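Researcher: We plan to redesign the surface later, but first we want a full-length starting point. Tokens attached.
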């Protein structure tokens, strides 16, 4: 109905022109003292209105058909839709449409090339990650099987290096996966205590190196999410706490349950974040003040955490006071589990 009204408004000047011609015809008939003036003038006006209405309806339905063809062409600019649209438009519009088709074909070609390049990049990164796991596994095997041949200090340092390499490789792998068009998430019931415990075990060498005191207050609570994605997020948050820890570092993990959500909180007592930096800590490449503790930071860990949270429909919140620590909360919306 709206389109019909717009069509009427568009062609209203033509109706005024027809009525003006009718008025002129009526004036001529009146001046000529035609005997059938009264009946003829009514017939002329009626004929003009019928003619105008018929033309408007024809143009309306033709415009509606053309819009439908054009929308189909935009959704899928293939040969069939292009040919249908070309046959429905005028010669002048056909020339403009040929230009549009050539531009869209060029765009589609570039998109396909970009998608192929992205797939090659993803395959390369994933291949590199899997290949790098071989020397990492060898290092793990040496540390596990030749403990008596290594001094405790050397073993601790190698263990630290292994954990750092493992974290960097995992971060790179998830960076590639988060940008991929296909995701392999598996949503299930996850016991938070077990998931957090596995992450703490993976980061044990780094935590022990910094002599962290861990206070895990979880008591068997469950959430519904992707386990691997959640553990990646937790790993990045814990890694961030390790990098920016202070004296006598402490890590507290707890869960608050409300009617709307379950809120998992990871709090440290490290250097924290300045108030004007806090809104930007989840942005890509953001490192805040370039002091000694942040000069080698990439600013990718919390950015990837936010990206993963978005994919898993989770919310991240952060609170901090400078030199008093950082608290990051993962908010799980309530899900009805049958």
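Model: Full-length starting sequence:
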């Amino acid at each position: 109905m709206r389109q019909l009204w717009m069509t009427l408004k568009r062609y209203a000047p033509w109706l005024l022109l027809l009525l003006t011609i009718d008025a002129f015809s009526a004036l001529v008939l009146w001046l000529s003292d035609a005997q059938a003036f009264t009946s003829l003038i009514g017939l002329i006006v009626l004929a003009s209105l019928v003619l105008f209405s018929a033309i408007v309806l024809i143009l309306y339905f033709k415009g509606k058909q053309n819009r439908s063809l054009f929308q189909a062409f935009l959704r899928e600019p293939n040969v069939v839709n292009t040919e249908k649209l070309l046959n429905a438009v005028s010669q002048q519009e056909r020339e403009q449409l040929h230009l549009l088709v050539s531009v869209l074909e060029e765009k589609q070609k570039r998109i396909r090339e970009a998608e192929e390049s992205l797939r090659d990049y993803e395959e390369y990164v994933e291949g590199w990650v899997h290949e790098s796991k071989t020397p990492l596994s060898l290092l793990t095997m040496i540390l596990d099987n030749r403990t008596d041949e290594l001094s405790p200090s050397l073993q601790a340092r190698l263990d630290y290096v292994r954990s750092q390499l493992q974290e960097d490789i995992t971060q790179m792998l998830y960076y590639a996966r988060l940008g991929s068009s296909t995701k392999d998430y598996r949503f299930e019931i996850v016991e938070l205590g077990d998931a957090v415990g596995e992450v703490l075990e993976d980061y044990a060498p780094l935590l022990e190196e910094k002599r962290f005191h861990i206070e895990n207050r979880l008591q068997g609570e469950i959430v519904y999410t992707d386990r691997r994605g959640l553990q990646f997020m937790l790993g990045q948050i814990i890694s961030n706490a390790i990098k920016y820890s202070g004296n006598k570092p402490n890590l507290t993990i707890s869960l608050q349950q409300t009617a709307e959500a379950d809120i998992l909180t990871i709090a440290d007592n490290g250097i924290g974040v300045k108030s004007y930096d806090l809104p930007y800590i989840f942005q890509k490449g953001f490192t805040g003040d370039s002091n000694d503790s942040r000069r080698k930071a990439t600013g990718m860990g919390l950015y990837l955490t936010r990206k993963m949270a978005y994919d898993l429909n989770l919310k991240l919140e952060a609170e901090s006071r400078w030199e008093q620590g950082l608290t990051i909360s993962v908010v799980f919306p309530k899900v009805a589990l049958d």
